[in-house]
From TrEMBL:
<dbReference type="InterPro" id="IPR008928">
    <property type="entry name" value="6-hairpin_glycosidase_sf"/>
</dbReference>
<dbReference type="InterPro" id="IPR054491">
    <property type="entry name" value="MGH1-like_GH"/>
</dbReference>
<dbReference type="InterPro" id="IPR012341">
    <property type="entry name" value="6hp_glycosidase-like_sf"/>
</dbReference>
<dbReference type="Pfam" id="PF22422">
    <property type="entry name" value="MGH1-like_GH"/>
</dbReference>
<feature type="domain" description="Mannosylglycerate hydrolase MGH1-like glycoside hydrolase">
    <location>
        <begin position="245"/>
        <end position="551"/>
    </location>
</feature>
<dbReference type="GO" id="GO:0009311">
    <property type="term" value="P:oligosaccharide metabolic process"/>
</dbReference>
<comment type="similarity">
    <text>Belongs to the glycosyl hydrolase 63 family.</text>
</comment>
<protein>
    <submittedName>
        <fullName>Trehalase</fullName>
    </submittedName>
</protein>
<dbReference type="InterPro" id="IPR004888">
    <property type="entry name" value="Glycoside_hydrolase_63"/>
</dbReference>
<keyword id="KW-0326">Glycosidase</keyword>
<dbReference type="GO" id="GO:0004573">
    <property type="term" value="F:Glc3Man9GlcNAc2 oligosaccharide glucosidase activity"/>
</dbReference>
<keyword id="KW-0378">Hydrolase</keyword>
<dbReference type="GO" id="GO:0006487">
    <property type="term" value="P:protein N-linked glycosylation"/>
</dbReference>
């Protein structure tokens, strides 16, 4: 293993690949053992945790590496409890010269019952899971008074005699299978090896960006959960802070990062949505172990993502993989063509800001549905890629049809949404141009720069530099706009996926210097704001959720492509 590197678990949860367990230090200065089953609408806290000495809670310091969490009695380094998640469903721990007290954050029916010598089963109704809590060596004390239909309260005091105590907490759905748990050291060594192998596969960066590399590598590793319920394979969640689901455009950026290192895991991020694809062709908006939602969807960037994945690894070029992806993309594309426009002579629409991924962008402030140029541009590119794939699969008639659809949409885009030398959005019910035209989303037609006249792409690039570029990248609402809002979600802050879409489009269309500059700004920003959900464009401060996977994935991809250039210019 590499040298210890400490996490701030007030921002970045302590977890591991495949696990639904997570430990967090919350705003009330409590250490929490959490479980992320059920998605981000479900309560996640199982227990609050305290360090106890002489029967009283004592102050402690947290030392969290990627694989071990140590809770140290402040000023007494020999008195501590240490935890690791040695297996995906098993937390193992050791308390040394100090007690560890767990207090359940329970609902009415949650109940704890003895199951054997120094062993208790905890039924967690709100999470639809059970926990087996086993003392492997040492002592424990339990207080769980019963009240008709459940325990009135539940407190587990591990190592009350303050000697040494080894214990395990295992999660399962139905029946616990009797087993001999490994010794604590063995469990820790196993997770150490797993993380070391993951870290070894991450891209190498210059010394300047090593802190960001370590953080991004840990976040992507620790945010994966194992197959269960609706999840048919390992899924990289957006976060284990609050947004513990997998969304159907976030998954593309995580899959892209994984594609050159673990192609099967990368493909799994797309297959999770293909498996649940609706008869209409629409992908679910998000999926977790318990349910999936079709209330909204996400923009059609999936063919672009798959094309880039194919460039990263030959595994994706297997005929059966290409054919399977083609068939799914055909269905997804027909959804937009058939169900998101009124007829063949109209443009597709967003029916909610969430459909675009830009939830509260200014073009959505006047009502729905909206004709947005980014949607049509993404769809044109998807149609062009489908035409290429159809030719590869010797489906010449289909290839020609996709090309014709793309040409028709391109003509409509330029006719309806390119006005006065710039792209606009329209409020479809009244067929009028939306007043607010300072959203970065309106600049995304650059993704079809290969179709646009050069003077149009030049004007888009000039607009990006003059109206949107800030100290650390592209504002999502122009910094000159009256609607620009600090910490305004999509009304100003920088977002990783959008940054990557623009950098990729700029590079593909020959604006290499600008692409490199934006990449360098983004990478430097992560040294200030970490791997946050989004960032202040002028200070680089991380905003909202501080531990996001698509931010981590975008950093790792940019670092691989641009870090040497950035280091040379530093």
């Amino acid at each position: 293993m590499t040298q210890p590197w400490y996490l701030n678990i007030a921002e970045v949860p302590f977890s591991r690949y495949g696990s639904y367990f997570a430990f967090t230090y919350d705003t009330k200065q409590q250490l929490l053992l959490r479980d992320v089953h059920g998605g981000d609408e479900a309560p996640s806290t199982l227990f609050t945790m305290e360090l106890v000495k002489g029967g009283q809670a004592v102050p402690y310091e947290l030392e969290a590496t990627e694989t071990r969490l140590r809770i140290v009695h402040k000023g007494h380094p020999s008195e501590y409890a240490e935890l690791c998640i040695g297996d995906e469903d098993i937390v193992q721990g050791r308390a040394q010269e100090v007690g560890l007290r767990l207090t359940a954050v329970k609902t009415r029916y949650d109940s704890l019952m003895p199951r054997g010598t120094r062993q208790w089963e905890y039924h967690v109704y709100a999470k639809e899971i059970k926990l087996m809590i086993s003392v492997l060596d040492g002592a424990a004390h339990v207080e769980a008074p019963w009240r008709m239909v459940g325990n009135e309260s539940i407190t587990l005091w591990l190592n009350p005699d303050e000697q040494t105590c080894d214990f395990a907490i295992e999660s399962y759905k139905t029946v616990w299978k009797k087993k001999e748990y490994d010794r604590y050291e063995q469990a820790c060594e196993r997770v150490d090896r797993h993380y070391a192998e993951w870290l070894e596969r991450m891209p190498n960066v210059g010394e300047q960006y090593e802190p960001s590399r370590r953080l991004a590598s840990y976040i992507t590793w620790s945010c994966v959960v194992h197959p269960e319920g609706q999840l048919t394979d390992y899924a990289m969640y957006m976060s284990k802070n609050w947004m513990f689901n997998i969304w159907s455009w976030d998954n593309c950026f995580n899959a892209l990062m994984l594609s050159g290192r673990d192609p099967e895991l990368a493909m799994a991020q797309l297959d999770l949505f293909i498996h649940h694809q609706d008869q209409s062709g629409i992908y679910a908006d998000f999926i977790n172990d318990k349910f999936l939602s079709f209330n909204c969807c996400k923009p059609p960037i999936h063919a672009w993502a798959f094309k880039k994945m194919r460039q990263q690894h030959d595994w994706f070029n297997q005929p059966e993989v290409v054919a399977r992806m083609y068939n799914s993309l055909v269905r997804a594309t027909k959804y937009w063509l058939l169900y998101r426009r009124t007829d063949d002579s109209s443009l597709p629409v967003y029916t909610h800001g969430n459909d675009s991924g830009w939830d509260n962008a200014s073009i959505f402030h006047e009502g729905m549905p909206v004709e947005a140029p980014d949607l049509t541009a993404h769809l044109i590119r998807q149609l062009d890629i489908l035409s290429e794939m159809a030719l590869e699969l010797q489906l010449e008639v289909e290839a020609a049809a996709w090309k014709q659809h793309a040409d028709q949409l391109y003509a409509l885009l330029m006719e309806r949404l390119y006005v006065g030398g710039r792209f606009v959005a329209r409020y479809q019910p009244e067929d009028r141009i939306i007043a607010h035209q300072d959203s970065l989303i309106l600049m995304l037609p650059i993704v079809i720069g290969y179709r646009l006249p050069r003077e149009v792409t030049d004007q888009l690039v000039l607009g990006l530099m003059e109206r949107f570029e800030a100290a650390y990248g592209l504002c999502t609402e122009s910094h000159a706009s009256s609607l620009y809002k600090e910490n305004g979600y999509w009304l100003g802050p920088i977002w990783a996926p959008v940054t990557y879409l623009f950098i990729d489009a700029l590079q593909v269309n020959g604006y290499n210097e600008f692409a490199s500059r934006l990449a360098s700004k983004f990478m430097k920003m992560t040294l200030i704001g970490g791997m946050a959900e989004n960032f202040d464009p002028f200070s680089g401060r991380g905003l909202v959720d501080p531990a996001f996977t698509w931010t981590s994935s975008v950093f790792l991809m940019l670092a691989e492509q641009y870090a040497a250039i950035s280091e040379a210019n530093a």
